[in-house]
Amino acid sequence: MDHLFVHVSDIHVGRGERGEFMPEKLELCIDEVNELAPEAVILTGDLTMFGLKEDYESAKKYVDQFKSKTLVIPGNHDARYTGYIYYEEIFGVGNWTHRMDDVFIVGVDSSVPDLDEGRVGRGRTDWVDKNLQRVPDDFYKIVAVHHHLVSVPGTGRERNVLTDAGDFLQMLVRNKVNLVLCGHKHTPHVWRVEDIYVATAGTPSCRKVRAKIPQCYYIIEFKDTYTTINLKEVGGKEERVRKCKTL
Ligand SMILES: [Fe+2]
Ligand SMILES: [Fe+2]
Fold first, then answer.
1. H or E, element range at 4
2. How far is the CA of 118 from the centre of ligand 2 (A)?
3. How do residues 28-87 score in pLDDT, each as one tens digit?
């Protein structure tokens, strides 16, 4: 069965000291995505700048403008100032599973309150493991987690990678996951690890990007036996990052 998803990350809604949040870019991104009408928009964390109540209320208003179903997980910024309390009130639990036809998606919260580094932990790794074990072999399996699963070029310090990335990755490989969606450092990159494609997204609406990286998001299509990952610049060109046989 064919499927179309959009992967948006790190929208960072809020009043940052340097005007990091670019509302006009997010509005344009939402318009573009609504035009595409994907089956779901997967948002991989850092919805807010500081995890404050006003950030969350504003972020919710933006997220609700996506006409497609939205699937959301938190990031490290969302857990600042005990923002995880507002996250649960406004967006619900940060760990969830979702099934759409022959696609199974798991969202995992890797944030640690008031720390920038991320960790899934043994409890949540076991929980993901148990859920994936129940999924039929011919399903597409997608896992969404905010922090990097594998180091991304140009993102510097190792603390961007999950502190327990090895354990988590081993479990994902054992369960034949097809695609992992991450965010965090606003630097788009796709790695293949074993038979998994690990797509780390950029940001559509935060000024904090590495040199020459545009505000962007991913358009992901499963068609026949192929997975296509395209990078879409907000208000700009669409570029193929990968077209690969679904492994
Ligand atoms: Fe971020
Ligand atoms: Fe982050």
1. strand 3-8
2. 9
3. 999 999 999 999 999 999 999 999 999 999 999 999 999 999 999 999 999 999 999 999
Query: Into how many domains does the chain fold?
Result: 1
pLDDT band at 159 (very low <50, low <70, confident <90, very high): confident
> Which ligand sits nearest to residue 48's alpha carbon?
1
Give the ligand at the shortest distance from the Cα of 111: 2
Q: What is the pTM of this model?
A: 0.97
CA distance 45 to 43: 6
Q: 129 CA distance to ligand 2 centroid (A)?
A: 24
Task: Write the CATH number for 123.
Answer: 3.60.21.10
User: H-helix or E-strand containing 100?
Assistant: strand 96-100
Check residue 114 and give its pLDDT. Answer: 85
Q: How far is the CA of 61 from the centre of ligand 1 (A)?
A: 19
Quote the CA–CA distance of 83 and 56 in Å, as a whole number.
8
Domain that holds residue 116: 3-245
